[in-house]
Amino acid sequence: MKNIFIIWVFLATVCNINAQQEKGIIGSSNWLNNWTEFKPGKADYGEATQILAGNISENTKLVKKDVYIIQGNVYVTNNAVLSIEPGTVIIGDGESKGTLVITKGAQIIAEGLETDPIVFTSNKSLKKAGDWGGIVILGDAPINKFGNYSSVNFDLDPSLTTYGGSNAASSSGVLKYVRIEYAGKKVRGSSESFNALLLGGIGNKTILENIMVSYAAGDSFEVLGGEPVMTKMVSYKSNGIDFKFTLGAQAKIDNSLAVRSSYLTSSAGSRCLDVSSYTKKEEVDFTKKQTLVTATNLTLANDSDNIDQDIKAGLVKEGVYVAENCSLVLTKSVISGFSPAVVFDNKIEINDKNLKKIRIEDMYLNFCNGNIFTEGSTENEDLESYYGNSAFFILYSKTSNLETFNDFANPRRPDFRLALSKFTAATK
């Protein structure tokens, strides 16, 4: 009997460790290896040999042997397909605010390889956030605005930037093993910036895997409606929001990473995950689906040599923001180094009905100045009582990034998976 008890304890311990190791980004090996670049400013991509300009109205293929430069706003129209070979480099022109727009009905097939990714980057010798525009992909999946259609502003042609429709299962193509660097140029006559990758009305047949955005001046990933399925997304040291979902998006994001810096921020707000259903309530059709984001195995981390000091200095804000009239399922994820971990819009009434729409469970909250709060409030007893229930299985710790993750500070090949062998997670 004693031996049976020992075996049971051993198996329970192993299962508990394995369960904890499932939090944050996961993988038997470090899936960031080979295709990512955490020092993109030092990479030499060569000079442009081909120009992309105006409208691309027929099927076109970009090949690895050439380096392309996007001059001005380039639109893929007329249901054309833009195909890009693995290893191809596309440079955004800073002077003309180079931006690539895949219009509704057209497709982009940018399928890189782990050992040969496709790179969109700046043409400046000294690269910085906002050197060029970004990538806009538009589809005909539903959004929650009246009429089910909208258009992207951002100093683009409104007749070519409509999105939305009724085809949730549509495909706008493939983005796989793609890097987008130094995008987000400021919009002319506005305080806003372009986003590195904007997805408007994207259907769930669009393939979005292994995409890295680094040093964006605007948001890294903005999702306007649609039903995107996103996996292995990386947002690295962007000024804006890392992952933003709105306009009734029915989105799934899995096994993805956001690394922020205390010293990079945007006047429009900067956080890792931002979930809302609208920007203007009067434009929303409440008979349609409002935003629902299912986020699993996210790692949201603030890169700081002294997180405690940066928090006290007011350099760090919340990691996750949830607005009214939307839903979020956030599970098996890590939030490390924010103040606080999660903030609810102050228009959200704290009651069972609303809290059931915001499921935050099986989490690891590390070195956060507070856990879950309502915007503008210093009291969170009701939220602490609700999410503090053991059924939500939220773990708490206060350790440095070096202790928390496998190899956080590696300049070339960091590993942001949890290093649970270095500490014992404890419930609060």
Automatic annotation (TrEMBL):
It comes from the Bacteria. This is T9SS C-terminal target domain-containing protein. The lineage of its organism: Bacteria, Pseudomonadati, Bacteroidota, Flavobacteriia, Flavobacteriales.
